Automatic annotation (TrEMBL):
Biological source species: Nemorincola caseinilytica
Annotated protein name in UniProt: DUF1036 domain-containing protein
Taxonomic lineage: Bacteria, Pseudomonadati, Bacteroidota, Chitinophagia, Chitinophagales
Highest taxon, organism lineage: Bacteria
Length: 139
């Protein structure tokens, strides 16, 4: 059986439309993404009761305090470990915390919006499970 790289699925939303995405904790950047254009606005929500797993620690989309991960340098430094985060165009440069409810008032760049569980770069291998999020394009 040959190995092949799975291609991301990019959803394009009209104003007022919603899309439910499944975000897997082991993916560096989610395979489910949203096409965005500068100036658009979005709301991202998920049920706080959902859980995904960092090695053996069950965490909500709000994440949990992890001093060791903070010491090693998480991808989004000011967010908790395993907090649901977002990034534009597969770059952590402007990555941001989402948690369970976040509104992007003004998308800063054209491209794609992907999601991930905040962790130390390279430690995605010990992440398990997934959460479902609802992305709503506001304008």
């Amino acid at each position: 059986m040959g190995s092949h790289q799975q291609q991301p699925v990019v959803h394009s939303l009209n104003a007022g439309a919603q899309q439910i995405l499944r975000i897997r904790a082991a993916e560096r950047y989610s395979m489910q993404r949203i096409a965005v254009m500068e100036g658009q606005s979005y709301n991202i929500r998920c049920d706080a009761g959902q859980r995904w797993v960092d090695m053996v620690i069950w965490a909500s989309p709000k994440g949990y305090p992890n001093p060791l991960a903070r010491l090693f340098g998480m991808r989004v430094h000011d967010a908790r470990c395993f907090c649901l985060c977002g990034a534009y165009n597969d770059a952590d440069t402007d990555a941001f915390a989402i948690g369970t409810d976040h509104t992007i008032a003004h998308v800063p760049i054209n491209g794609t919006l992907s999601f991930f569980a905040n962790d130390v770069h390279g430690y995605e291998w010990n992440n398990w499970g997934s959460i479902d999020i609802t992305v709503t394009r506001l304008q």
